[in-house]
Amino acid sequence: AQKVTQAQTEISVVEKEDVTLDCVYETRDTTYYLFWYKQPPSGELVFLIRRNSFDEQNEISGRYSWNFQKSTSSFNFTITASQVVDSAVYFCALRCTETSGSRLTFGEGTQLTVNP
Amino acid sequence: DTGVSQNPRHKITKRGQNVTFRCDPISEHNRLYWYRQTLGQGPEFLTYFQNEAQLEKSRLLSDRFSAERPKGSFSTLEIQRTEQGDSAMYLCASSPGGTSTYEQYFGPGTRLTVT
User: Fold this and answer.
1) Alpha carbons A81 and A78: distance in angstroms, whole number
2) Residue-by-residue pLDDT tens, chain B, 115 positions
3) Are residues B13 and B23 in contact, defined by beta-carbon separation less than 8 angstroms?
4) DSSP A21-37
5) Could you tell me if B84 lies within 8 Å of chain A, comparing CB atoms?
6) How far B38 CA lies from chain A's nearest CA (Å)?
7) B23 part of contact set with chain A, CB < 8 Å
8) Cα–chain center distance at A46
9) Which residue of B has its CA nearest to A98?
């Protein structure tokens, strides 16, 4: 069975600090996909990024960057120079197409609070 | 262009009543998903449609739950004889077809409160 663990329940930082959100996953599939979603106070999940299991290249998008390491089964998310608008719950999710079809398995989320 | 829409946004019902939620996916997305999210938890998968066919169902989807997607467009999720444990946010998502690699786009959810 697949599992996603986000060990950090809550993180609080001061604006302009860098922050890294951890995500560790478990799966026996050789082909799988990893995702990050943001859930602001309004409640709607916003897609941020998708990575597939055979592409370990790290990605940067503006202030966001993602570090995918198969050796440690981790897919961590870093926000550089955090802003108050980054305050939200962030979810890491896993899709294992071989064993679980199209469903996403989510972690329990990390509540990020960026204080001014 | 509009995203995934869900109605109603909030629903308060008494225990034992039936409720029905509606989801309109992004147009041209032939895959539609339902998830449930309780407070402080990540979303949990309930069921998935490809066009009008319901292809996957979670163990969470008890006999009191039924979902349909007639004509492969909008979908409805019905809960019969609601229980207090059904109180949660019900999320709908859609994705393009072709392969299963695409990300899912979520709607704003329907928050159900069973009193």
Assistant:
1) 10
2) 579 999 999 999 999 999 999 999 999 899 999 999 999 999 999 999 999 999 989 988 889 999 999 988 999 999 999 999 999 999 999 998 766 567 899 999 999 999 9
3) no
4) E--EEE---SS-EEEEE
5) no
6) 10
7) no
8) 12
9) B100
